[in-house]
Design brief:
- This protein has four helices and six strands.
- The protein is of the alpha+beta class.
- It has one domain: Alpha-Beta Plaits.
- The strands form two sheets. Strands 1-2-6-3 form a four-stranded antiparallel beta sheet, sandwiched between helices. A two-stranded antiparallel ribbon has the order 4-5.
- Strand 4 and strand 5 form a beta hairpin.
- It is globular and about 55 Å long.
């Protein structure tokens, strides 16, 4: 897999904004990617050193419209912590 096939998009919420100062970032990643692949992809894409990666599988929610119902898509979240001596990710600097 290529780098940007693994990293789908960043997660931008109040909780993740608070962690940007501590060099913790959240991404939606490919469901089949493991922690080692996610670490390599983040290091390659942003030129930083990754300390740890935590992942969580999120199940889709039930959504209804009228009498029909369905589920939103399942996805995988990755919480990436950078080392203390690593530079911050430039994309997130303007957001904090």
């Amino acid at each position: 897999m290529r780098t940007f096939d693994i990293i789908r998009r960043p997660i931008l919420s109040e909780k993740t904004y608070a962690d940007i100062a501590n060099k913790k970032y959240a991404f939606i990643v490919d469901k089949s990617a493991n922690k080692v692949e996610i670490k390599k992809a983040v290091e390659e894409a942003f030129g930083v050193k990754v300390k740890s990666v935590n992942t969580a599988n999120v199940d889709g929610k039930i959504k209804r419209q009228g009498k029909t119902q369905g589920y939103t898509n399942d996805y995988k979240k990755a919480y990436v912590t950078l080392t203390a001596d690593s530079k911050a990710i430039e994309f997130f600097e303007s957001l904090s």
